Amino acid sequence: MADSSPSRELLLRTLSGAFIVLGIIGGIYLGGTAWLCVVATLALISQGEYYRLLGKRLRLSRGIGYICSLAVLLSAVEGSRPVSIALILSLSTYAIFMVEILRRQMTGQSFAVGNVGGTLSGVLFIVMPWTCILLLRSLPTGNLVLVSLFASTWGCDVMAYLIGARWGRNRLCEHISPKKTWEGFIGGFLGSFLMVAIVIYVLEQPPYPLFLIGLVCGLAGQMGDLAESLLKRELGEKDSGRLIPGHGGALDRFDSILINGLLTYLLFGIVLT
Hints:
mainly alpha
């Protein structure tokens, strides 16, 4: 019986991980509304978990945050100009100020600074990266870039965990995430390149520029993981949620993909076009 709990935990992680992979790959393959639904669902669930964490310290206008996020995602799908997203964010800021004006008028208290910063940070930190990931699908090689992005990110996560657990000795950021080590960091970096190499070999693609995704995910993705760890450390939380058995919340599972998605879109959607 002593081994039943770890075995069950591994089984749950494997099954839930397989379900996530199938959902992501299916959304990428189908594109269109299916991909929008996958991205919007993951973005809004992650945003909700983020708001739950921040809600321990701040007053937030969650409804305005969700409406802002949906507007950003839909404006991206419709091909709106970047100024449209800036307009959405600006209008949302004023909407939150209106909430705080009414609050102060009615109760004598207001929380404008924390509310604006906390609510809109959920859009900037989570939904904007997912919007970039959504837009990657519309590129000429969007399917290939997205498959490489997710494969590289997951390869980094898995190898960082395995190498760190087996050979980890030197702490990477002990005050933020005590279990992370430099050995795991290097293992994650190599794992990221390994997965991109597999994609290149299986799909018979030229190494450049896909290897750039391995570089981005191997370095930046682990910083994204640390960013969420810092947030949870400050707020005294172990996980962002309990949605995914064996993994925690959606934000726990997809924290690395956020910065990876931003930088990959910067490379393939702007710099290399």
